[in-house]
Amino acid sequence: MLGAFAFAGIFLLVAVVLKTVFWAVMLPVRLVFGLLFFPIWLVKTALRAVGFVILAPLLAVGGVLVAGLVIIAGLLAVLVPLLPILLIAFLIWIVVRSFSHRPVPAA
């Protein structure tokens, strides 16, 4: 068991050393490609910023409209079941009003 741990430790040490050497050798290549692709990254970032500036107000207005529609739908969901009660109350009001005595205007 101790031998297996020793072998794993040596293997990991060799792997770390090889990774460090590979990283050091490839660093100039990575820097060159980074400098070559920097203008492309800069243009892509600028286009995303312009797209955000254009789309943000549209998304904000759309969000307000959707919120308004959700509020209206919620109110309708609460008020529509009350319509039969309102209809009965209106009919009772009409019946009571028709039987109530109005004063005759003195002309």
Can I get a quick summary?
The protein is an all-alpha fold.
Describe the protein in words.
The protein has 107 residues and is an all-alpha fold. 89% of the residues lie in helices and 0% in strands. It starts with a helix and ends in an 8-residue tail after the last helix.
Q: How do the SSEs run, as a string of H and E?
A: HH
Number of strands: 0
**General shape:** elongated
Mean pLDDT over all positions: 92
* Radius of gyration, taken over Cα atoms and rounded to an integer in Å: 39 Å
Helix fraction bin: over 70%
Give the uncertain stretches in residue-range form: none
Fold blueprint:
Elements: H1 2-79, H2 83-99
Keywords:
107 residues, mainly alpha, elongated
